[in-house]
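note to self: the first set is below, dont mix up w the second
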Amino acid sequence: MEYKVFELTNKNGMKVKVTEFGANVMEIWVPDRDGKAEDIVMGFDSPEDYKGNPCFFGACIGRMANRICDAKFTLDGKEYDLPVNDGKNNLHTDADKGFHKVKWEGSQDGNSVAFRFTSPDGDGGFPGKLDMTVTYTLTDDNGLKIRYEGVSDKKTLINCTNHSYFNLSGDLSSSIHDHELKLYAHKYTPVVAGAIPTGEITNVGGTVFDFTEYRKIGQNIDDDLEQLTLVQGYDHNFVLDHLTGDYSKVAEAKCDRSGRKMEVYSDLPCIQFYAGNCISPQTGKGGVKYDKRQAFCLETQYAPDAINQPGFEKPVFNAGEKYDTTTEYRFSTY
């Protein structure tokens, strides 16, 4: 089977490649402070190479991003079982059959590509036939907008995200410890073993999770703190300051080596900051050797295990109710 690759370009020298295989992001080329464009995301040379992809490089995650405790949930009194694929839990729905491993039908209109896929009732263990569209748009102010739209014929869970791994230096073989990160989040959700939230929503003030002002990713990442050692560094969900549905800036990251800056906009309630602690040694695009903490993810989302946590906002959508959310990664220099 062949999978189309679509290329988006803008007037500023930015370029993005996305593929019908999994609606995955393959490349994001962004100019540095000197105008030199480099690819700043991890990935592979061809769509077929993404059939492995154990680290979810560039992945369009669905139906449900992140973890669900004990790989089960109850909806309207009925229990649903999911693939057990992360210890005793479920992670990103299905590593081999999730949205990032199916063929989407893609069509390009100028600087936008729309991918369409119908997830059948029971797919991944979730109820309802779900019609999905994911649209990538490259704007002239260097934003990559990702819009997710879905409608199910049964009450179900929907929580999609993009799992791109960024290294703003343009050198994907280098550490991201010197990158600086700012999150518009004064609270986060602590975890237990297995990276499942405890159910608490905790203030970040005075802790190593305080990214309300710019902080270097590597500043405290190896501190001997249980919350860090449980997941080998940062891999935590942050509760955003804005209200769900309020499309606004939720994160910033920058790299002094290149002068590149990335701003993240979203209307979702949470964001997962993952510092690439568990990237397994492997060969990526152009023969570059990838390893841990050579890229980071900022995954907009509903909180992990939200369906099983009493105090968390639920990603539950009724039959016929539209799931419609947008996230944007916007690039500049300084």
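second set (the one i keep forgetting abt)
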Amino acid sequence: MTLSVLRTADAWWVQTPTGAARIDTAATTTGELLADRDAIAAAATGTEVVAVESLSLISPVTAPCRVVAQMTNFASHVKDSGMDPETVPLTFFRKSSGSISGPHDNVVRPAHVRLLDYEVEIGLVFDREMPVGSEITADNLSGYIAGLVVTNDISARDVQLPKTQFYEAKSYPTFTPVGPALVLLDADELKRFTDLRLRLWVNGVVRQDMTVADMIYRPVETLRTLTRFQRMDAGDLLLTGTPIGTALSAPPKPVQFVANLLPPAVKWKMFFQGQAKNPKYLKDSDVVEAAIGTDDGAIDLGRQRTVVRYAR
């Protein structure tokens, strides 16, 4: 059975059928909490609970930590970006853990950013050290992955694209809402990863809705590649890509062909003039909701709700 771990500013909690039970632990980081499984299990059987709605939840993944993300990892998103899913490589980029925010915190757009985008993604939270060179298999995957979280990879497209600068464009404070829960899974539950559905709404309108069946590189293959060069530790976070439905979409092929003949400065000026007319980019006061779970409800990572605010 899944265990949903919640976090407030002063405590860790386990969600039970009747409410949230406080975990008796001295842990201050996600990694430390994952090492205190006895305390988590004890809280799950406790009878003293409070209403989940009464808690002011913050991210169940604590910073500092490593935040690694996969690029263009859903076939539908790859096609929408003008690429071929059959040939797209498995690639990664880093985000600052300073970008992590809570599941109900505002998403703050910096004053210089004009094209603010969203990407609902499944976050894998590591259970223990994965040194470079670790052997990852389907049988031992659950030993490395403690559980899953809802994440939103907020992106400043007008910073990312002309500079090909993913780190800056995706690392501003509040650009990685995480939670509401860290859902701990056992080996059998983790095998249902492909049944998970990712959904995102803006102002109540569905923008993204796709299952993991559309994912190109899944966790075993991803971690086998990642461990060639990147160490991960307990409490670190890996974002696994987003499906079609983001505000950014590739221009039609004829337009791309003509644009490639232009000087870079002219090309990007034309591109951003066109993107400025796209109503899907996030605006001040937009409400963004993201949820992930299996259609039968057996695995439910919860639903986050954030409001976009423009910095003045």
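remember for set 2: The chain has ten helices and 18 strands.
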